[in-house]
UniProtKB/TrEMBL annotation:
Keywords: Signal. It comes from the Eukaryota. Pfam families: Exo_endo_phos2, Jacalin. The keyword DNA-binding does not apply. This is Jacalin-type lectin domain-containing protein.
């Protein structure tokens, strides 16, 4: 996975500030917006939007700043990207991947930081009724930090357009590709997919329902505006739309996980907020806003992350979710010049091991009333990538276990009072790239 997020130093500050997990909020809310900003060059596509595209892009950016949505996904952000960013004021923003024919047109503007960001191109495209293969569209994924220990994997998507057979075949492949990626890279995680799917439920060949059937995601429009009933008759929206009953190709899907529950509490086509001074539209798409309420679980929580976004994603959460009172009985680490692996065995014999087989093994057996309560992690650079070099675990009885080599870039990640460390989430390979801890009550 590529890293286009803020520098490691920004992450260091965030993790240190949030390492005292007991101070974290246990509930909250945030809002998101998805908007296709019609940023293809005017000479190629007018998008049936009056006015000058550069001026319109500047207005869009001003509106983003005015309304302050917490996370904004944009599509078709091609040749007028700089005008949007010039008038927007969000703290965290992705760098453009280029104009039309070069970039994907996918960008995110946010009030929240993220630790991972990657761009993925489509495996399949179609020019059956357009020029979808002209520019490398696809999707992005970022692991967004909503609060200390509260992470949501947010996906931005722009699927193949058109209604010819070739288009529907390509779009079906696009949606399947995202669903499969979620299964691999977001296992155990809260997820929001929002963007331009170019799909409707009445286009059955697209299989837009795959996010529900394969990934367990809920469509916020179906949930709040349709009572969960999938439409069988196409209902097109005006632009600007004066109702939320109609269906657009722009959609917002979501799910929580065993750490944080999420529920969509508000859905709206924000068309009336995004207009030119004379009332004309700014885009040929109706922007969508959704408000999410979230609450932390009383049985499982997690720390912030340390290390770099490399290697393969892993999560012990799906397994831990089936345990009523997990407790670590044995800690097993491997390390040498760097941290090679981490592992623990629960009292019921369940074992978690992540990383490689190098280094020297160190092991600690915990007493019946002894809990793993905190850990020091140190990171460093290896082959141009950030990895975890060192771990030192401390138990409720004051016993310690260490592996690897300490560096000057360290953080202490502690379970909240009355909680314990019982598992891991992160990314690994031959060594430990990225690591966070799962907490359960003592």
């Amino acid at each position: 996975m590529s890293l286009l997020a803020p520098s490691v130093s920004a992450v260091v500050v965030a993790v240190l500030a949030g390492s005292g997990a007991a101070r974290a909020a246990t509930s909250g809310s945030f809002d998101i917006l998805t908007m296709n900003v019609a940023g293809l060059p005017a000479i190629l596509q007018s998008n049936d939007v009056p006015g000058d595209k550069a001026t319109n892009a500047g207005t869009i950016g001003s509106d983003f700043a005015k309304y302050g949505y917490d996370v904004i996904n944009v599509q078709e952000d091609f040749n007028y990207h700089a005008y949007i960013y010039a008038t927007d004021n969000h703290t965290y923003r992705t760098a453009t991947s280029g104009g039309a024919a070069i970039g994907s047109g996918l960008n995110t503007l946010a009030n929240f930081d993220w630790i991972d960001f990657t761009r993925i191109g489509w495996d399949q495209c179609s020019d059956a009724s357009g020029s979808d293969c002209l520019t490398p569209k696809g999707f992005t994924m970022m692991r967004t930090k909503v609060d200390s220990g509260v992470y949501v994997d947010m996906y931005n998507i722009h699927a193949d357009a058109g209604t010819e057979t070739g288009d529907e075949t390509a779009r079906n492949s696009n949606l399947q590709q995202v669903a499969d990626y979620i299964d691999t890279w977001s296992t155990g995680n809260a997820v929001i997919v929002f963007g331009d799917t170019n799909s409707r439920y009445t286009r059955t060949a697209d299989n837009i329902g795959i996010f529900a059937s394969q990934n367990g995601l809920t469509d916020s429009w179906l949930r709040l505006e349709r009572g969960g009933v999938v439409p069988t008759v196409e209902s097109l929206c005006d632009n600007p739309s004066t109702t939320n009953d109609c269906e657009t190709v722009d959609k917002v899907f979501y799910r929580g996980n065993s750490i944080v529950s999420m529920d969509a509490t508000y859905f709206n086509y924000e068309s009336s907020k995004f207009v030119q001074a004379d009332g004309d539209i700014l885009s040929d798409h109706n922007p969508i806003s959704v408000v999410f309420a979230w609450t932390l679980s009383s049985s499982l929580r997690q720390s912030d992350f340390w290390g770099g976004p490399h290697g393969t994603w892993f999560s012990d959460l799906p397994t831990l979710n089936s345990h009523s009172k997990p407790k670590a009985s044995i800690l097993t680490f491997r390390g040498g010049s760097r941290l090679d692996s981490v592992g623990l065995t629960l009292t019921d014999g369940t074992t978690f091991v992540h990383g490689g087989t190098g280094g020297t093994q160190a092991q600690l057996t915990l007493g019946a009333s002894e809990y793993w309560t905190s850990a020091i992690l140190c990171q460093g650079q290896k082959s141009g990538q950030t990895r975890n070099f060192y771990i030192k675990a401390t138990t409720s009885s004051g016993n310690t276990l260490a592996a690897g080599t300490s560096t000057s870039d360290c953080a202490t990640l502690s379970a909240p009072a009355g909680w314990q460390i019982v598992g891991f989430v992160g990314q690994d390979g031959d060594e430990m790239d990225q690591l966070a801890f799962v907490f359960a009550p003592q």
